[in-house]
Write a structure and sequence with these properties.
Length: about 400
């Protein structure tokens, strides 16, 4: 599946990877677990004008095998249909939208162990689509200090992806992420946290379904040609996230705010702010309105057409070497805004229902933006059911 699908799924809270649960399951039986949590959810992402439509199914569980050991898993299935901008300019002879139709199946599994003040977890992942295979692992540690008032987290994540590219051999992409974070309990009602992630990706980083157009002459006749995009063969990025949560006892509610800053060597600098208020009612019902805004600068190699690039003959199968160019609207100068609400209701000691709605809008800003028609608006619904035993 292309990067367009990957970004849409990430907007739904999905990861491009998913885990070899069967490696762990044979050794685990439910009666041996001290506690078992399970939840399932159904999610719909629907863009306006009949663009992208994504249906997602999640099944998650966590088994507490002992006081020190636990196992969790997640299975997912995403069905994607619709169309997305391919990179050509609207209103021309080349198609502006490309049709997408795919299904992704994935599984994630992790086992964690308490070792003194440390909680160590190993996670494996596996997901497959018609033209995309992703496999990976993550290892992280949660270290509790200062009578559990201070928590330090650190770890490493690796993904190995294989992409079936039309017209040539399968391509490979590898991703490495290192993260370090800390949270501090200031008082019984206030928590502050900070996280740093350093990521590096190498290999085939272009989107095989994205193109860029150029006005040319053939036999003296003007034509509009399209060529595959050519992104760099590596990407280095850094992400800093700051979060604060404050509980207000008199209101029986909590304010949560997250600020996120990101910079990569594509030239993309992004900043985002998310604010939500979690309000409790009658000990069984919780309502959480939220607001999120995001803004980014354009990549150094973003162009609306190859007319802006000094190049004689674009490669048929670009390898990441320069010059680099892409007309993908996700690499343009843009901003997004989301507003919505989540609700959760406990039906009993062991059962809870949840529902969420989010309205999402994207728009170009500045002079490095894509055509207005490229940016989507969307509605997203989520329904969930949770059990605890």
């Amino acid at each position: 599946m292309d990067d367009t699908t990957e970004v849409l799924l990430s907007q739904l809270g999905l990861r491009p990877s998913a885990v070899l649960a069967p490696l762990f399951l044979p050794a685990i039986t439910l009666p041996a677990a001290e506690q078992f949590r399970f939840d399932s959810s159904y999610q719909v992402y629907d863009e306006s004008d009949g663009r992208m439509f994504v249906e997602s199914y999640y099944y998650r569980g966590e088994m507490f095998l002992s006081e020190d050991t636990s196992f969790r898993f997640q299975m997912l299935r995403d069905a994607i249909t619709g169309s997305s901008p391919m990179g050509a300019l609207p209103g021309g002879t080349q198609p502006f939208l490309v049709e997408l139709d795919d299904v992704r199946n994935g599984v994630v599994a992790a086992i964690s162990q308490q070792l003194s003040d440390h909680r160590v977890e190993l996670e494996l992942s596996h997901s497959r689509e018609s033209d995309y295979l992703s496999q990976g692992f993550a290892l992280n540690d949660r270290w509790e200090l200062n009578q559990k008032n201070t928590t330090v987290t650190f770890g490493f994540n690796y993904l190995n992806d294989t992409i079936a590219v039309r017209g040539t051999d399968d391509q490979n992409k590898r991703s490495y992420d290192f993260f370090l974070g800390a949270s501090q309990l200031l008082d019984r009602d206030t928590i502050l946290s900070a996280n740093l992630t350093l990521g590096y990706a190498e290999g085939y980083l272009s989107d095989q379904y994205k193109v860029i157009q150029r006005n040319e002459f053939f036999g003296g006749i003007p034509i509009t040609s399209i060529y595959r995009e050519n992104r760099p063969a590596s990407r280095l990025r850094a992400v800093v996230q700051l979060q604060g949560t404050r509980f207000f006892d008199g209101a029986n509610g909590a304010l949560d705010a997250i600020v996120r800053l990101s910079q990569d060597d594509y030239g993309v600098f992004s900043q985002s702010l998310q604010v939500e208020w979690r309000q409790g009612f009658w000990k069984r019902f919780e309502m959480t309105p939220f607001f999120r805004c995001y803004q980014q600068t354009a990549a150094d190699f973003f162009y609306n057409s190859l007319n802006e690039v000094s190049i004689d003959a674009p490669q048929e199968f670009p390898d990441g070497s320069g010059p680099n160019y892409s007309a993908d609207y996700r690499l343009s100068s843009m901003m997004t805004m989301s507003v919505g609400a989540k609700a959760r209701c406990r039906l009993g000691e062991n059962v809870a229902l949840s529902m969420a709605y989010e309205y999402y809008a994207m728009a170009g800003i500045g002079h490095d933006q894509a055509p207005e028609a490229a940016y989507p608006t969307a509605s997203m619904w989520t329904f969930g059911l949770n059990f605890t035993f």
